[in-house]
Amino acid sequence: MCKYKIKRKQGIEIGTSVVREIYVVPPDILDYPTSTDMVVREGSNVNLRCVAKGSPEPSITWRRETGEPLKLLTGEEVGSIDGPVLNITRVSRQQMGPYLCIASNGIPPSVSKRIMLIVHFPPMIWIQNQLVGAYEGQQITLECHSEAFPKSINYWTTDKGEIVPQS
C-alpha cells in the first residue's frame, strides 16, 4: 500500500490519497502436497488432494479425464466436484483411470494435473458353457474368461492337480 499527499503549488495540502497495488497471479498447482498417481486395493477409501496457489486464491474442481461421471456418497453421479480433496469411498474397479484436478482463479490460464488411480482387484472368473459333453477321444474346447488387475495367469488343471497344456 502506498500513501501520498496531494499539494497545490503554494504548498497547501488539499487531500490524502491511498493507492493499493493489487497483484494478480494465475493459478499454479503445487507438486506437494498434491497427490500423485495412486495404486489401491478395491474396496479401500481414497483421498485425492490438490493444492494450488495464485492471486486471487484458485478454486479446485475435480473430474474424470474420460468424461465419465463421479459418484457422490449418496450414489448420485455428477460431472465434477469442487474442493481441494476428492474422497472416494469403497473404490471399485469401475473408478480406475485418470482424474483431473483443475485450478482456476479467473486469471488465465487455468491449469490441471492428471492423477492416475489404479485399482487392484482379484480375479473374477466366468465360464460360458459350464457343462460340456464329449465322447471318449473326442476333442473339445473349454473356454474360461477372467478379469483382474494386475492381469491374472490362467490355466486348466486335471482332477489330480496336473496342469493341462494349452494347444
From TrEMBL:
<dbReference type="InterPro" id="IPR013783">
    <property type="entry name" value="Ig-like_fold"/>
</dbReference>
<feature type="domain" description="Ig-like">
    <location>
        <begin position="27"/>
        <end position="112"/>
    </location>
</feature>
<keyword id="KW-0732">Signal</keyword>
<dbReference type="GO" id="GO:0005886">
    <property type="term" value="C:plasma membrane"/>
</dbReference>
<dbReference type="GO" id="GO:0043005">
    <property type="term" value="C:neuron projection"/>
</dbReference>
<protein>
    <recommendedName>
        <fullName>Ig-like domain-containing protein</fullName>
    </recommendedName>
</protein>
<dbReference type="InterPro" id="IPR003599">
    <property type="entry name" value="Ig_sub"/>
</dbReference>
<dbReference type="Pfam" id="PF13927">
    <property type="entry name" value="Ig_3"/>
</dbReference>
<keyword id="KW-0393">Immunoglobulin domain</keyword>
<dbReference type="InterPro" id="IPR036179">
    <property type="entry name" value="Ig-like_dom_sf"/>
</dbReference>
<dbReference type="InterPro" id="IPR003598">
    <property type="entry name" value="Ig_sub2"/>
</dbReference>
<dbReference type="InterPro" id="IPR051170">
    <property type="entry name" value="Neural/epithelial_adhesion"/>
</dbReference>
<keyword id="KW-1015">Disulfide bond</keyword>
<keyword id="KW-0325">Glycoprotein</keyword>
<keyword id="KW-0677">Repeat</keyword>
<keyword id="KW-1003">Cell membrane</keyword>
<dbReference type="InterPro" id="IPR007110">
    <property type="entry name" value="Ig-like_dom"/>
</dbReference>
<keyword id="KW-0472">Membrane</keyword>
